[in-house]
Each structure stands twice: as C-alpha cells, then as structure tokens.
Design brief:
Protein name: Motility protein B-like N-terminal domain-containing protein
Order of helices and strands: HHEHEHEE
Number of domains: 2
CATH architecture of the largest domain: 2-Layer Sandwich
InterPro entries: OmpA-like_sf
Strand content: 15-25%
Helix content: 25-40%
Keywords: Membrane, Transmembrane, Transmembrane helix
Distance between the termini: 98 Å
Largest sheet: 4 strands, mixed
Number of strands: 4
Structural class: alpha+beta
CATH topology of the largest domain: 60s Ribosomal Protein L30, Chain: A
Length: 170
C-alpha cells in the first residue's frame, strides 16, 4: 500500500515555529548586544568621551579667559545707563597698551529697584551700561576684537573693566 502524497498535503501541517518568534529573537539579541556595548563603554573616562564627541562634531575648545592684571570701575546712578566714561577710558588705554591684552567690560546693577526704566529689567540695564562703556572704548580707538562684554546683575550699579593678559595670538 503506497500512499500518494499530493502537493497540497503539506499545507495542512502547522509550522513548528511562527515567523514572529524569529523576529522577536532577533530583537532580543540586538538588545543584548546593545547592553553589552553599554557595559563595555562604562569604564571610559567621561572627559575623554566628551572630547571625542566634540571633535567628531567639529566643536572647538573655548579659549581660557584672560588672566586679569588690572581692574577699574565706573559708578552709575540708579536706573541710569549714562555716565562719563572718560576717566576709565584713559585708564583702559594706558593699562591695555600691550596688544596681547583683552578688556572685559562687566555690566552690573544694584539691589532691587535698579532696573531699566522702560522694561523694568535689571539685566537689560546691566547690558546697556556695559555697551555704553564698550562703545566709548571703541570710539577711543580700542579694537572691538579686544573687548568682551559680560553681565552680572544684582551686585552694584557699576561697570567693571578688567584688563587681562590673553597671551600671543599665534
């Protein structure tokens, strides 16, 4: 007795494994591989890793701030960004005679109530004060690339000029 098997006889037999189980196994192996990779990189020095990421994205390291060698201050009236900067301009031109120095102009405001009259913002008043002094420095002949402006609201109604040695440009 020989049985004849037709081509359709195999269609009735259920497969041993479903197709989705193979996909699930692939996903599980990928996850295991990912966690192994995470554990392997756990011992990396954080600073070296960040430096590598910065280099990969083309981010340049920021230059260290210039070493401060002299400071001066210009006092402002409360709520005002106008003051006569001639005295600090003369000081800055003398103190920053060397082309390797940089001038940092730090605008500040006093305690509560020392704010910009139009916006009531101490930060905007501090920026206006610093810009007023920086513009006077540029008008006096200081190259704009040698000036940087920072803001520290809430200290006193002053602008602090810091002359710092930045080193050689090369």
């Amino acid at each position: 007795m020989t049985a004849q098997v037709s081509g359709d006889a195999w269609d009735d037999i259920a497969p041993a494994r479903s197709a989705w189980i193979i996909t699930l196994a692939d996903l599980a192996l990928l996850l295991v591989g990912f966690f192994v990779l995470l554990q392997a990189n756990r011992e990396l020095d954080r600073e070296r890793l960040l430096a590598g990421l910065r280099a990969g994205f083309g981010i340049e390291e920021a230059a260290p701030p210039p070493m401060t060698v002299a400071t001066a201050r210009l006092v402002f009236a409360t709520g005002s960004a106008d003051a006569d900067p001639r005295q600090v301009i003369a000081w800055a031109r003398d103190a920053a005679r060397d082309q390797r120095t940089r001038i940092t102009v730090t605008g500040s405001t006093g305690p509560a109530g020392d704010a910009d009259p139009a916006t009531h913002s101490p930060a905007i008043l501090a920026v206006d004060r610093a810009r007023h002094v920086a513009a006077a420095l540029i008008a006096a002949g200081v190259h704009p690339a040698r000036i940087s402006i920072t803001v520290q609201p809430g200290r006193a109604p002053v602008v602090i000029l810091s002359v710092g040695f930045a080193g050689d440009a090369s």
